[in-house]
Specification:
Blueprint (H helix, E strand, L loop, with lengths): L1 E10 L2 E11 L4 E5 L6 H8 L6 E6 L2 E2 L7 E4 L11 H11 L5 H10 L13 H14 L4 E5 L7 H16 L4 E5 L3 H5 L4 E6 L2 E7 H7 E7 L6 H5 L3 E7 L2 E7 L1 H9 L4 E5 L3 H14 L2
Parallel strand pairs: 3-8, 3-9, 6-7, 7-8
Antiparallel strand pairs: 1-2, 1-4, 4-5, 9-10, 11-13, 11-14, 12-13
Helix pairs in contact: 3-4
Length: 288
Amino acid sequence: MLKINNLSKAFADYPVLSALNWEVPDGKVFGLIGSNGAGKSTLMRCISQVYDYDGDISLDGAPIADRKEKLFFVSDEPFYFNRFNTSEMRDYYRIFYPDFDQEYYRHLLELFHFDEKKPLHLLSRGLKRQSIIILALSCKPRLILMDESFDGLDPMVRLTLKRELIKLVDAGETSVIISSHNIRELEDICDEMALLEKKQIAFTQSLEDLRQNYHKVQLGYSQAPAAEVFEKMPVLSYEINNKVVTVVYHGDAARQEIEATEPILFNPLPLSMEEIFVVEMEVSQNEK
């Protein structure tokens, strides 16, 4: 388990993370969501020990600084030595990752149809990402951190990568944290989602709980309602269009108050993960 206690990080006098607490259980794929500048990449770099920070981070009960061989950080700008190819980078990582799986590495090369001998500086951004992802998975770490790592990958490669990540997690060998702006893509692979806002983890929930607890309904009235009616309710968002109101809410209390307005139409609508996180981010930002 990854455990973060009272984590704070500032650049000069500007705080990015403040008293952040978070637990990531074993055998999970976590999606990390937040607005631009919320601190997602900074959090990833603190966990991976790229940045110094205040607070405590542990992995499987030990300080994470002592468990570096058990985590792999796939950054938005992957590291490689100039003029090296993937095969040479493999030899480099095998020095630091004793669990490196050579047989699995060969399997991934075939799966991704990847040329390990081509110099990395000659590859496209997408192929460089494929290279570091193949190396990351082959290291068989306990924790993989992926920062916008799907960017630049073609649809087939993204699908293949998701399948391999799920296999590793299901085998109980690895947990994964994926930071991305593409919520729809995370929805396909993640077990749980976490929202980073106001320098802290605002909330974390399983996708199943999100689907069950968040609702979007279209309401119809015989007369157009006043906005004040919904402003006083514990709803996440509402939109009034004459006699029709569209509401996003969670919780039984909100539903009871909505039903108390006696709409003549109560029509449930599909609600995507992206809509949920957009309204949650808007609520969080409006509370500043």
